[in-house]
Design a protein that fits this description.
This is Prephenate dehydratase. It catalyses: prephenate + H(+) = 3-phenylpyruvate + CO2 + H2O. The protein has about 300 residues and is α/β, with parallel strands linked by helices. It folds into 3 domains: about 100 residues, D-Maltodextrin-Binding Protein, domain 2; about 70 residues, Periplasmic binding protein-like II (D-Maltodextrin-Binding Protein, domain 2, 3-Layer(aba) Sandwich); about 120 residues, ACT domain (Alpha-Beta Plaits, 2-Layer Sandwich). The chain has 11 helices and 15 strands. Helix 9 runs antiparallel to helix 10. It binds prephenic acid (PRE).
């Protein structure tokens, strides 16, 4: 959909999830149609099937790490690209229909992981029930399928639940990063503070294959900000590496690094270049590896080739 801004936004629902709160930070989504989906693969498939223009899905949490279902669903199926990210502070409450005995507590696995210590200390005997989202957990409590849930304060409020315990996160100050995903389209223009996401498949029979991936980035001053490995599912020992690096595909040094990766990897999947949602400045490239150095060197080579 080149040039047409997205107006139909799928997201991990139902209403009241952290994903919905993150989606509402995007002005286009405030104006557009928001389509709650039951889980991340369904949200991404809605984009692949043109039932939505974009999907917002959780990708990484500052305490619990990456969201594996999102990483897997991004690369299994027709290509998709990330066009924006949203970083949202997350905080949790324990909520129930009425105060009383709590024998079962429902929530999303990533939320449960962020309140593990609290639950072990305060509700050691409660059965823990993993469900598809924190807002789905709140609905389960309303429907009587669980005594209590771990959810966002807003989800407790909109579902008419009583908050039993506030601010229950083991690590105050946690944040989750969400990715806005579309069908392949030209990336948003560079802002000077961008991230490029990739998945690389290395040659498993080559010693130092991962080192050569890192070298292609480092020698161009491209800063690696995240690396995760996930099994490809083919057989034991086969992994895909998910990389986030500073910079935009239109920058010379990022482009050269991508070409280098293309040469040394079995396969490279481009997952998009998009603005970082942060106040932090990007790490400056080492001397000789800035964008102007690359532009200078390109001009010099062109001169040599043209006999100038
Ligand atoms: O269940 C939700 O509310 C979500 O938006 C999912 C999700 C996640 O996948 O990490 C998002 C943020 C919180 O860290 C907990 C759960």
């Amino acid at each position: 959909m080149p040039g047409v801004p997205p107006s139909r936004f799928a997201y991990l629902g139902p209403s009241g999830t952290f994903t919905e709160a993150a989606l509402l930070r995007l002005p286009a989504a405030q104006r557009g149609t928001r389509i709650p989906m039951r889980n991340v693969p369904e949200a991404l498939d809605a984009v692949r099937g043109d039932d939505a223009d974009a999907a917002l899905v959780p990708i990484e949490n500052s305490v619990e790490g990456s969201v594996p279902v999102t990483l897997d669903a991004l690369v299994s199926g027709d290509p998709l690209v990330i066009t924006a990210e949203v970083v949202l502070p997350v905080g949790f409450v324990l909520a129930a229909r009425t105060p009383g005995e709590v024998t079962s507590i429902a929530s999303h696995p990533h939320a449960l992981a962020q309140v593990r210590r609290f639950l072990r200390t305060n509700y050691p005997d409660a059965a823990i029930v993993e469900v598809l989202s924190t807002a789905a957990a709140a609905r389960d409590v309303v429907a009587g399928r669980a005594d209590a849930c771990v959810c966002a304060p807003l989800a407790a409020e909109v579902n008419g639940l009583t908050v039993l315990d506030e601010d229950i996160a083991d690590n105050p100050g946690a944040a989750t990063r969400f990715a806005l995903v579309s069908r392949p389209s030209p990336p948003p223009p560079p802002t000077g503070n961008d991230v490029t996401s990739l998945v690389v498949y290395i040659a498993h029979d080559k010693v130092g294959a991962l080192l050569s991936v890192l070298t292609e980035l480092a020698v161009r001053g491209v800063n690696l900000t995240r690396i995760e490995s996930r099994p490809t599912g083919e057989r034991l020992g086969r992994y895909a590496f998910y990389l986030d690096c500073t910079g935009h595909v239109t920058e010379e040094r990022v482009g050269e690094a991508l070409m280098g990766l293309k040469r040394v990897c079995a396969e490279v999947r481009f997952l998009g270049s998009y603005p970082r949602d942060t106040d932090e400045n990007p790490v400056a490239p080492p001397i000789g590896l800035g964008n102007h150095d690359f532009a200078d060197a390109t001009r010099w080579l062109q001169g040599l080739r043209s006999g100038g």
